[in-house]
Amino acid sequence: MRRRCKSIERKTKETDISIEIAVEGSGNIEVDTGIGFFDHMLISFLTHGNFDGNIKVSGDKHVDYHHSVEDTGIVLGMAFAGAIEDKNGIKRFGTYFVPMDEALAMASVDISGRPYLVFDCNFPAQKIGDMDTELFIEFFRAFAFNFGITLHIKLMYGSNSHHIAEAVFKAAARAIRKALTLDSSIDAIPSTKGVL
Predict the structure, then answer these.
(1) Is residue 196 part of a domain?
(2) Would you say residue 55 lies in a domain?
(3) Where in the cell is it found (predicted)?
(4) 105 in Cβ contact with 155 (< 8 Å)
(5) Of 83, 97, 112, 122, which has the fewest beta carbons less than 10 angstroms from its beta carbon?
(6) pTM confidence score
(7) Distance CA 167, CA 128 (A)
(8) Does a structural domain hold residue 50?
(9) Is 124 contained in some domain?
(10) Can you give the residue range of the structural domain that contains 20?
(11) 73-103: per-residue pLDDT in tens?
(12) How far apart are CA 116 and CA 95, in angstroms?
């Protein structure tokens, strides 16, 4: 089985980010964004997607966390897109529901080459730790558009913002893992167009 992996570095006046990603994971995960709760969510994402990842982020966090979070989404999306440049044999679609105590979240993905995000998720709290909850949509938008996927995320219900965030990140990871799985019965690009 081929190992799909990619390393990306991106430096701007606002952030300096390096990400290595491997779709076929073996438990090697290192995350340091300087934002405690964001690290927690990225580690959950990589763990529950069974992806290997090394994510290092430095940025203008003295301003706020917006640039660091959004740019991490950009680079992570670019890394995944590069890792699966050959989409031959992938299942393409994935949907997953994840419960986290009182919260239930759904994520559905199409590795389509057509970037789109639907994020139907409200957080009762404005912050979790010192991270603004409004930044989650910025992360997933940047990730989906730079990965080139259609991603729908919906909170079915929930009242604790920490639980909601965990359910969302885990559901997204599991749905993407399912869509990226190689199907031995498929020896082609899974599209009537012949390209994704």
Answers:
(1) no
(2) yes
(3) Cytoplasm
(4) yes
(5) 122
(6) 0.95
(7) 14
(8) yes
(9) yes
(10) 5-180
(11) 999 999 999 999 878 899 999 999 999 999 9
(12) 15
User: What's the gap between Cα 7 and its chain centre?
Assistant: 16
- In this predicted model, what pLDDT tens digit does every residue of 165-183 receive, in sequence order? 999 999 999 999 999 999 8
Query: Which tens digits make up the pLDDT trace of 104-146?
Result: 999 999 999 999 999 999 999 999 999 999 999 999 999 999 9
Please state, for a pLDDT cut of 70, what percent of the chain lies above it. Answer: 97
CATH number at 158 reads 3.30.230.40
The strand pairing partners of 103, in sequence order, are 100
Contacts of 195 (CB under 8 A, 6+ apart): 113, 189
